[in-house]
């Protein structure tokens, strides 16, 4: 068993992101086996890492937002003249305002946990919490993403089988998916990964063109009745896994 940087171990344990871990360590808020550690210190994976109450309070105060992103907005930073989805997080666009009051501080450090193409709509998660970001987009993420996909064209004979398992993108085999027809021109996709424009590229490989794409679920969190262009806070009882 080899030692690793404590920030790396904290990220792997789902305690926070590596950046957050470094910030907590700098403030003296991290202990290993009861001893305060410094930036760059290492530990064994089986050692006990604990957070100070100040770090725990800071994590509790961080918010996660569910947005029904419209077509025409980019998930991350503004690009090509298109506005970022985060620009929609305003008091006027908050859905179900009675649950939690919007505070300007909730925009600080808010970042998308996963992408949703500019020409796609639906559930986009923005969070201040590195633990949630890692859960949704970490290399070992097990969170399912469900999409409703409208298509046109003629699918090749074994196309549905290939969509479920057997396609390769960028020289890498895709993980098994769950794909089924909902009606004559609409498919349901459940993915366990999120490569760039993955669904559109998968459909092209089997002879289909995507003309509409909407993400409706990430893990146990659904879009439900959230209107397009509006947002809400993740509820206290909601969990992605």
TrEMBL record:
Residues 64-204 form the Pseudouridine synthase RsuA/RluA-like domain. It comes from the Bacteria. It is an enzyme of class 5 (isomerase). Residues 5-41 form the RNA-binding S4 domain. It catalyses: uridine(2604) in 23S rRNA = pseudouridine(2604) in 23S rRNA; uridine(35) in tRNA(Tyr) = pseudouridine(35) in tRNA(Tyr). InterPro entries: PsdUridine_s_RsuA/RluB/E/F_cat, PsdUridine_synth_cat_dom_sf, PsdUridine_synth_RsuA/RluA, PsdUridine_synth_RsuA/RluB/E/F, RsuA_PseudoU_synthase, S4_RNA-bd, S4_RNA-bd_sf, TruA/RsuA/RluB/E/F_N. Its EC number is 5.4.99.21. It holds the Pfam family PseudoU_synth_2. Keywords: Isomerase, RNA-binding. This is Dual-specificity RNA pseudouridine synthase RluF.
